[in-house]
Amino acid sequence: xxxxxxxxQELVPDEKRLKRLFSQGLSSSAYGLESLQPRLxxxxxxxNHNPACSLALIKIEQHPTNVKTLAQVVEQRLxxxxxxxxxxxxxxxxxxxxxxxxxxxxxxxxxYADWIESDQLFGYLSEQQGCWTPExxxxxxxxxxxxxxxxxxxxxxxxxxxxxxxFISDKRFVWFSPDSRRPLPIRVPDYPLSxxxxxxxxxxxxxxxxxxxxxxHANAIYTEVEDTVEMISDEQFVNWAAWxxxxxxxxxxxxxxxxxxxxxxxxxTRYTHEQNRFPISALWLHKQLGAAYxxxxxxxxxxxxxxxxxxxxxxxxxxxxxxxxxxxSHSLLETQGERIGQINGLSVLDLPGHPRPWGEPARLSCLxxxxxxxxxxxxxxxxxxxxxxxxxxxxxEAWLRxxxxxEQQLPFSASMVFEQSYAEVDGDSASLAELAxxxxxxxxxxxxxxxxxxGSVDQFGNVQPVGGxxxxxxxxxxxxxxxxxxxKQGVILPERNCCHLSLSDDVIEAVKHQQFHLWPVSTVEQxxxxxxxxxWIAEEGDDEQxxxxxxIQERIDDAQQPDKAPGGLFSSLRWLNWLKRx
Length: 582
Description:
Structural class: alpha/beta
Oligomer: single chain
Largest sheet: 7 strands, mixed
Shape: elongated
């Protein structure tokens, strides 16, 4: 069993290694995308080399920046294709013939649109002084190349989609009148087509498309633009740095320095909630580049840090207001001393309309009384908890019954509640805290209030990872900071969550100077010993060692002993009890 804390070096990237690798990436002329989006590149290559398939479906969050970046990637991967180029030639007014300009013309154009109307896509006939002229649309301009359109746009205009599908399938564009009651004023020859179509949209849009066009969806080339990538090899870090430098160049920004990239890695892992996973979203990167550039027209560690500090300050009015309330005198949260049946749990608030979630400590309490063994979840009975929270409560009850090895019902009942909480509670991330406070009340042993606890528990006593870990830790740190740091405070967290840590600068500094601590645990036993300084089970061979399990079992045995009436056989109290029984 271990109760060692995490060092501050474990909370930040390996700067020595990354500094060397990022220097290589900034000096590289490679775009760095080959190892960052291999699935996307493979799908593009399949579309280019497969003459029997002209449709690809790509899952991507639809934003102009994302679609533009995708178009750039597609254009870079296009192979030269021999396509015939045509123009309309009028020998007489409003009488057109189709003429081939250059035979076997090499063409590799990519056209895209976030939203498009029928005239923009298919073209139209314009009139000037009684003369009609065919104006080509995006479909004809993309002839011989690739056209990228939004699924949402096509689903919202089903007639336009039906025409587009037919034209691409027939490899021929037929001019039509937008008003079915009025024919075209002139005759325009059909336009030969050879177009590869890429439809992009969210997962929900793709699901709707599969219902409308099940056969097309099943036979199309499908892939997803990845938002994040697991960074393991040196080559991946080099390519990531090269990609950032390339994006900065495309925005006409100065090249980023190595310090900028090192600071960006911390923001990147905070975004992904994993230390080995980095974002490769152009939308996310452009936001960071733009914010840093606004701080002095340079891309440095100082400019990015200043931008992130200002962003946090701008967005922190509501979190700071609630944190002040938690530290006020009317709040019963404590970060010092010891209490039986009381513990600091951690939750995350994510309010609609606010750009980021934040952590909020919560006081959990438990009372024990003689009863039928039921653990009363007050939140559940008040209809303030969800199904996942109820599941967590049943799991900790199952673990406790298994550990106690009871032959009959537990002679105690418990009442557990989130104090000063008036909103719905859900999730099982408080399971470890709830189990600890239950054991504290059963064993009548106090819990050190310097700790806050988060973690889920399974039926075998393993502590499982939870979400929102960084926000939870920072929320408790702010409470300790306002109530006064003692050097003993900190958070007990699942050991399996250590790879998700990406904390703010002030928390890292506090850990570095041993003013705040992080204790990773993998089992319930480790967490209980940290909280109450007593092991759950005595070491083998040490029968005299006090343990929480033996204390609870002894209390159960005492509760199950029959009461002996004082005064002997002829006691008046004994006869009174006998009369009452009758």
